[in-house]
Amino acid sequence: MTVSYTSEVADCHGFGNFWRLLFRWRGSVYKLVWLELVAYTVLYSACSAVYRLALNEEGRRQFEMVSRYCDVFSDLIPVAFVLGFYVSIVIRRWWEQYKTLPWPDTLSLFISTSIHGHDRQGRLMRRTIVRYINLSFVLTLTMITPRAKKRFPSLDHIVEAGFMTANEKKIFESLAEKTVYSLYYLPLVWAGTLVARARREGRIRDDFAVKTIIDELNNLRGKCGGLLSYDWISIPLVYTQVVSLAVYTFFLSTIMGRQFLDPAQNYPKNNIDFYFPLFTILQFFFYMGWLKVAESLVNPFGEDDDDFEVNYLIDRNIQVSYLIVDEMHNEHPELTQDIYWDEVFPQELPYTIASEQFRRDPPLGSTANLQVPEAEQEFLPMVDEQPEDEGGVGHHSEEATRC
What we know:
Blueprint: H1 29-54, H2 57-74, H3 79-100, H4 105-114, H5 120-144, H6 146-151, H7 155-161, H8 166-176, H9 186-200, H10 207-232, H11 237-257, H12 278-297, H13 310-327, H14 393-402
């Protein structure tokens, strides 16, 4: 499930408010980067050991020339620009995919309020329609996410879970044999047919309610189709390759280019000798972490820690939609006067002791404290303008008036 930490950063008081988040493992950058970081450190240390222990004097000079060459030309790789632009595209696409997820709440509300009848037939219609809605969602998810596919690997599993009946499965399979394209929308077609039947039987009392439900069915079909489109159309592979090559070639060049060379040779920027490249390791950590963020979010329907928890959505949607159209159908609490009935509206709502510190006066406009001098509050006299006729009579009359 998505790693949420909102409650831990509700305020920014104190020193280093985000420090409390740095020591988490699940969903962390450490979990994503540590393998690459270990490999990079081993390669860097191996090259350093060869330079210091295995090479003769002439070999060291050759090593130093290669190191300086790699250091100079590695700066020509635009890692920050390419990687930053790529990550911004990935994050925007990630959020748009979340907003494309269909939620059955609104449609269930329309069904509950529009399809009347407490008898068995009315209840059966309402429950069947929302079951078809959730079935369409499940069929869509099994096509794009491993989590749902592993949970419902076949139509038999969907039947066993209660989203589809055995007879509906036969109809679905017979229609699927006639086309190579997916039929994720077929349950929504069935739902639309049931809405039309409910209108004919008088359970829906006006055509506007029918149109509202059909429009919402189309909206839900569009969102399911949008999810399939995101699964089909990825960020162009060439861009992903460019970014990956830029990052990996940059750090491969730094394995040689960031080596600490013999200070006695007086090379520029090599007047100190360390064994551990602290700032190079930090640079690797930040850039590689940036790339791993993109890799993690480019497909939020996978199995990473921060990917969408689609199984939770399946469970939640079926329960909520059944609740709305069945348990909550035409039910509401007894009408009674509220405690502010005589006052019309409350002058002030109560605060607890814990929330008293958040009591504030209502916000005012930016000109609330602007004072206009009384001498400047008089309106200027209005000047009447006469329309000018074709012969310029109005103009001459005005000149005569001034004279």
